[in-house]
DNA sequence: CACTAATGGCAAT
DNA sequence: TTGCCCTTAGTGC
């Protein structure tokens, strides 16, 4: 998916584009018709990301308390996506969510060419299976392929959040709780990082890459990883995921491990500015069999909990005890 | 046209 | 551990 950084970007985007506005809410596909009817015409007053869940708060009456808000909870799952369109005042990326155009591209930037003057903009027809459509004065957001899309109460929202582990991207993200959560289990750290009750927002790329950066073998048991190393792992997640929020892309390699800027070439041999060379964005994710960017050993791959797991067998020393 | 993979998560076994 | 759900884009016949 769309890992946590994507969802935090979405929360910011909805705040900027629709915050404070009454929205027309519909379900062109029909599967969210009942929920859409509960929200249609209400004002969007709050946006919040927690792990991979996006919460949009709608006020049923002016001046109502937070307890009265109706919350739209969406979860993009493996391939959900939000697509935006609007007039010239509406400056969102075209789409935020699962990669569609090619592997590794998770956002499609608006090119500005389609931006019309406010008076000229026409609401586009929904494309594909649009579960939910939010329409404001200057733009529209369409949701396709979500794993979850439902209207819940404030109490239900609290219940969802209480089941989630600390989120490295939230100010209330509690690194010490993360360390305690991991060290309380004898499951592999590579499994624990994907468990949203242990830490929320980490997905398959951040799992593999943060373990590489911390030089921890993914099969080492949580309780066997020293607390100090877990604290550093948490701090690194905060850093690398915040970069994902800022840029909209996951880049985990350090500059010193990449081809120097100025020497990067595209496939035609032309110099490329400001982008990591192809294949140097990540240390191990989807680099099976390729040489480690640091030590040259072949990157290994295994399947763990039905997801592909990648690591460097030399930089990430094998644990004494395997799972 | 069939088949697959994709940065998830859940329930049933 | 398997299977199923959400949807799209790419591949290959």
From TrEMBL:
Q: Which cofactor does it need?
A: Zn(2+)
Tell me the ranges covered by the Formamidopyrimidine-DNA glycosylase catalytic domain, including all copies: 2-97
Does DNA-binding count among this protein's keywords? yes
Domain FPG-type, by residue range, is: 283-317
Give the enzyme's EC designation: 4.2.99.18
Alphabetized Gene3D superfamilies for the sequence: 1.10.8.50, MutM-like, N-terminal
- Basic and acidic residues compositional bias: what residue ranges? 254-268
Q: Where are the annotated coiled coils located?
A: none
Q: Which family does it belong to?
A: Belongs to the FPG family.
What is the protein's name according to its record? DNA-(apurinic or apyrimidinic site) lyase
């Amino acid at each position: 998916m769309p890992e946590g950084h994507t969802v935090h970007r979405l929360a910011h985007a909805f705040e900027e584009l629709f915050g404070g506005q009454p929205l027309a809410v519909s379900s062109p596909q029909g599967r969210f018709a009942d929920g859409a009817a509960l929200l249609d015409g209400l004002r969007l007053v709050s946006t919040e990301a927690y792990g991979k869940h996006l919460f949009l708060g709608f006020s049923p009456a002016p001046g109502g308390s937070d307890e009265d808000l109706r919350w739209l909870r969406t979860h993009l799952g493996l391939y959900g996506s939000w697509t935006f369109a609007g007039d010239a005042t509406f400056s969102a990326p075209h789409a935020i969510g699962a990669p569609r155009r090619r592997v590794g591209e998770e956002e499609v930037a608006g090119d500005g060419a389609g931006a019309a003057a406010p008076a000229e903009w026409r609401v586009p027809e929904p494309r594909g299976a649009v579960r939910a459509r939010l329409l404001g004065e200057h733009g529209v957001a369409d949701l396709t392929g979500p794993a979850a899309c439902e209207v819940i109460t404030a109490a239900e929202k609290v219940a969802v959040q209480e089941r989630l582990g600390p989120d490295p991207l939230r100010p209330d993200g509690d690194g010490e709780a993360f360390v305690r959560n991991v060290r309380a289990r004898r499951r592999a750290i590579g499994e624990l990082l994907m468990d949203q009750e242990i830490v929320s927002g980490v997905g398959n790329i951040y799992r593999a890459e943060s373990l590489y950066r911390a030089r921890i073998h993914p099969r080492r048991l949580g309780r066997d990883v020293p607390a100090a190393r877990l604290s550093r792992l948490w701090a690194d997640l905060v850093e690398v995921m915040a970069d994902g929020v800022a840029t909209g892309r996951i880049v985990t390699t350090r500059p010193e491990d990449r081809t120097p800027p100025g020497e990067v070439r595209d496939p035609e041999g032309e110099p490329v500015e400001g982008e990591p060379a192809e294949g140097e964005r990540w240390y191990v994710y989807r680099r099976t069999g390729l040489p480690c960017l640091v030590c040259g050993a072949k990157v290994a791959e295994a399947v763990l909990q039905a997801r592909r797991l990648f690591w460097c067998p030399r930089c990430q020393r094998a644990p004494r005890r395997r799972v």
